[in-house]
């Protein structure tokens, strides 16, 4: 059974191959425009900076150069049950310089569409074993991000040769470019 985490909690992943599933529901009637949320991953070293541009994985760069992280595709609507976007991770392939994988979700064209995470509900990140499809952990965002247009859902980090997940749940008023500036 999956471990349900609270903000700030940490848990060892314990599986070398796993999938990160991200999900959300939106209230499109509040702005009149459809929501397009995008999951992105920053693979970083000890200095908290991405190893190289190619280690920023998102819908336009779907695979890291080491083959360890793969984005399965952009969901433009978030419709339906379960995961809206998934990222497959194989830690046995990860670049030896990598010590952290940051998971961020942003709202595409949030400013022009006048959208924010306050209009998004039932947001979650879960990690499940790719071989068995059994959930390892899940973190449901319960905060009301009324002005934020981007949220760092969580981070996977290496400590004492173990990979752990931390439930972060921190919003940012800004977009993907703000995270690129932060981690570049």
TrEMBL record:
<keyword id="KW-0778">Tellurium resistance</keyword>
<comment type="similarity">
    <text>Belongs to the CAPAB/TerDEXZ family.</text>
</comment>
<dbReference type="Pfam" id="PF02342">
    <property type="entry name" value="TerD"/>
</dbReference>
<dbReference type="InterPro" id="IPR051324">
    <property type="entry name" value="Stress/Tellurium_Resist"/>
</dbReference>
<feature type="domain" description="TerD">
    <location>
        <begin position="1"/>
        <end position="183"/>
    </location>
</feature>
<dbReference type="GO" id="GO:0046690">
    <property type="term" value="P:response to tellurium ion"/>
</dbReference>
<dbReference type="InterPro" id="IPR003325">
    <property type="entry name" value="TerD"/>
</dbReference>
<protein>
    <submittedName>
        <fullName>TerD family protein</fullName>
    </submittedName>
</protein>
